[in-house]
Amino acid sequence: MIANVIQPRQTKLLIVVLALAAAAVPLAAHDLERTMVSLTFARDGSFVLDVANDPNWLVLRLESFLETAPGPTGPAPRTTPILAAGDRDARLRALAPVFIDRIVLFVDGREVRPRSVEYVPPFDSRLNTALAQGRPAMQPTDIVPPSLAAFRLRGRVDPDAHILRWYYGMVVDPYPLTIHRADGRVMNEWIVAGDAWSRVEDLTGQFVRQTIFSVARQYIALGYARVIPNGLDHILFTVAVFLFGLRLRFVLLQMLTFSVSCATALALTAYGVVSAPPRGFGVFVALSVVYIAADNLAGTPLKRVRLAFVSACGLLHGIALASPLSNAGLASHELPLAILWFYVGIGAAELTIIAIASACVTWSRAQAWYHRRVVVPASVAIVGMGVYWTITRVIG
């Protein structure tokens, strides 16, 4: 009866439609997941793990792992409405601790848990910047579509580690896994089934055990580079402090006040006691440069209010400068020395700035026209730069 109703031509069309519908199911899932994984090791055994997915899919999947609310007939399924981009990203930041439980790094038969996790929203340049925090965030072969978001996890394996196996329990479709070894070798693997373990990856021969001196050298260099050349606002702030007054003791008194506050904020931020959105603090740091340079134009003697403001600026700059330590994923017992050497590097950079500035103007500081011809033009230029930074950071 049915055979008489459905003609051969219609039968062929029905078969094609059913085949396309069946194929669309895995394709749709793949389009949603679009997983990309990049694992990068450093010489000391630290690693940065970037796991990129579609952000809307991430919200749905991570919400499903939360405990369901009890209903009259048992647990009720959790439903998640479609969120605006800002709300979605805020929700994913809150779900970061849930995500960290969805991946497994098995090193030499033991699980190694990442020490920190950070959500990187879509269109964030960190996903496709060649160098992020001094290391390749994603290699050129790992181009991430701008619509994808990522969770960035940081941690450390033992320098004597030999083998690694990887597992990501949220996906079902195939995805690429790229491992960047500390010695420059790149290992690529295609995880054929999303819920499958990777093959055994060799970790030997790339790590170096760090001595006290190597740790000191590493963090001094990191702190120095955070200011020179990567902290132009901090450089101009230091120059503005130097330009104030004719006596060197005024400069040293301000820098000492600034350094105490900066080191305190640095330590509090590294330990997670204080945290702040980089954009918001970037605006305040720019305003601190404007104020300190504008105050130079008045030519007034050193007052307590200026020292108080310099101290407040030290807190702002300390929080802004702490990002390399906050992102390093250090254990609590590693932080004290890392903070110490990191700030030694910052202090060395500040001394370099003062030494260069002093060499440029020492011959004229005793002249009657020093304030009019040197301090005023330089301070006006610094104010202009600070205003420009303030405007650009406010508007995004």
List the helices and strands and how they pair.
Layout: H1 2-5, H2 8-33, E1 36-41, E2 46-53, H3 55-64, E3 70-71, E4 74-75, H4 85-94, H5 96-99, E5 103-107, E6 110-111, E7 116-120, E8 149-156, E9 163-168, E10 175-180, E11 186-191, E12 201-202, H6 212-227, H7 232-243, H8 248-270, H9 278-298, H10 304-321, H11 323-326, H12 335-361, H13 370-394
Helix pairs in contact: 3-4, 6-12, 7-8, 7-9, 7-12, 7-13, 8-10, 8-12, 9-10, 9-13
Q: What is the C-alpha radius of gyration, as a whole number of Å?
A: 27 Å
Mean pLDDT: 78
Stretches with pLDDT under 50, minimum 5 residues: 1-6, 11-30, 68-77, 128-142
Structural class by SSE content: alpha+beta
Overall tally of structural domains: 2
Whole-Å distance between the termini? Answer: 68 Å
Major sheet size, sense and barrel closure: 6 strands, mixed
What is the tally of helical segments?
13
**Shape, please?**
elongated
State which percent range the strand residues make up: 5-15%
How do the SSEs run, as a string of H and E? Answer: HHEEHEEHHEEEEEEEEHHHHHHHH
Strand order of the largest sheet: 7-8-2-1-10-11
Helix content: 40-55%
Q: Total number of β-strand segments?
A: 12
